[in-house]
Each structure stands twice: as C-alpha cells, then as structure tokens.
Amino acid sequence: xxxxxxxxxxxxxxxxxxxxxxxxxxxxxxxxxxxxxxxxxxxxxxxxxxxxxxxxxxxxxxxxxxxxxxxxxxxxxxxxxxxxxxxxxxxxxxxxxxxxxxxxxxxxxxxxxxxxxxxxxxxxxxxxxxxxxxxxxxxxxxxxxxxxxxxxxxxxxxxxxxxxxxxxxxxxxxxxxxxxxxxxxxxxxxxxxxxxxxxxxxxxxxxxxxxxxxxxxxxxxxxxxxxxxxxxxxxxxxxxxxxxxxxxxxxxxxxxxxxxxxxxxxxxxxxxxxxxxxxxxxxxxxxxxxxxxxxxxxxxxxxxx
Length: 305
Description:
This protein is mostly beta strands. The protein has three helices and 14 strands. It has a single domain, classed as Porin (Beta Barrel), CATH 2.40.160. About 10% of the residues lie in helices and about 45% in strands. Strands 1-2-3-4-5-6-7-8-9-12-13-14 form a twelve-stranded antiparallel β-barrel. A two-stranded antiparallel sheet has the order 10-11. The N and C termini lie far apart (about 50 Å).
C-alpha cells in the first residue's frame, strides 16, 4: 500500500504545481522552424503509449519523471478489491541530451529490474513540404534483473550475465491528422537466459500502437505487441500471450496522466513483449496508470529589455 500512497501523493503534487506550457513544447517533435522546413508537432503527447515507448523524447535539457503503476488483476474479486490490494511499480527518468538524442533509466518492482535505454531520432516528419512522411528513431534498451533466488545454491550459480536482456527497436511513427497518430515498431530481443532449451535466445516481435484525440486535452490510446510464434514456448510454466493494452490520456499543463488497462503486468520491453502470461478472456486485466512530469533543467536565455 505504500507504493499506492506514494503514487497518489506524486499525482497531487503534480496537479498543484504551477501550470506550465503544454507538454507539446517539451518533446522534440514540438520544435518547428519559423520559416523553411517545419516539423510535425506532438505525434504523441507522452513518452509511452501504454507500455511502448513512443517516438517522442524530452527536448534538450529537459528531464521527464515517469511513474508507471499497475494494480493486480481484476479477476482477484471483491475480497482483494478487484486487484487494488496488489501493486507493481516502475519509476523512470528520461533526459534529452539534444533534440535528437535522449537517454533513460528505470527501476521496476517486478523481478527487481533495472533498465536503461538510448534513443536517437533519425528522421522527423515534415508538415509543410511533405518531404519526410514519417518520423523514425532507433531505440536500444538493456534490462538487468536483481531479484534473489530463494535457494542459495541456485542463486550463487545464477551468474550476472544470465540476468541481462537486450532490446533493439526501430520506431516508425506518423501523425495523420491532429486527431490520429500511428506507430509501428519492429523489435529484436536477446535473452541471455531462457526458460528451456526449446526457447530461442533471439526473438522477434512487431509492436504497433496509436492515439486518437477525443477532446482538446484527452485521447484514447491502444497498443498490441505481437511476438512471432515458435520462438518462446512459455514463461514460468504458463503459456505466453501477446500484450494488448488500452489507455485514456489526460493532458494537464506540464504533465500527462494516463489510465491504462492491460494484460501485461510488467513495464519493460523484454518482459511485456516476451513474458506476458495474462489473458483478457480469463480476466487477467491489470488496471493502472502512468504519470509523466517534465522539468526543464537547461536555463533559457531571458529576452533583453
């Protein structure tokens, strides 16, 4: 319950903060030249669709603080308040080194996982000349699981290298209109250790997501992460499922609040893409939320009097 209280306190503090410019001005797609080539602004309003990282990145010198929270499954029933008695949490920091290059780190309570990533934007969609129809970014992620194994002998034999997994993604996004944005992300994942000899260490997936704006400050989002068959057979003895997630985005000044429903409890790429076991049909649906808050660390030049 402490995690729930912590998240709610952060939400209250965010709402009480002095309203800043729209998050639209805090991501790299928000920058457009006054003349000449102009770039599409705000393909997505947050750095995550639900679990998937979007094409967006913090602007140079901007720091994003991300809280990703998932309760238990709704099929836990009334005794566990439909999953609200349980919680998993990921805290992340994303920083814009430049308007094209960003980095991030995070810590998740699932398997006590640390993760880090580097994202570089190759292309930005143009909105006046039409010469560049999509935005493209390269994304590399690593995850390290630190959870101890209860058996001391197994824990000592479980080498550090076995705890690592790596992800490489090509993020391709297009803003079709002020209301509709779509993203497709071909994905490669390498697991240093898999469940059985039948499983592949190298796996491929195709992830897709979108955002549909319903009001000036609200949007509906969805994502689907398709793991190609015959690569991984199970996880901890349970059959694997493709992660399907839905979200409701609410933009409020300097941050975005996202209510989410997903069959994936985890929140980093090797886990939610290749280790999801929840079934929508069986009620294995995790309700939760994401909160993002932007802090501008780079001083801005004041206009001369």
